[in-house]
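name: query_chain
kind: protein
chains: 1
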Amino acid sequence: MRATNPIEPECLESALLGSNANVYDLGLKQDEAIRLRRIKDLEHENALLMRMVSETQIEIARLRELLSSN
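structure:
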């Protein structure tokens, strides 16, 4: 079975040198994925909020025009 994520040369070097350093930390990769997903979710939420603000401003302008015509 082939690895889908290649191990970086620095990780291999540290493993070959016998250091006790963490060779490949999947936790860091998961943390980064969670952070990127959260950023994407926040950007989507921001776009929805901006749309609501825009629609609210249009509705306020429409209501003001309606009130001033009466």
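note: Residues 12 and 18 are 10 Å apart (CA to CA).
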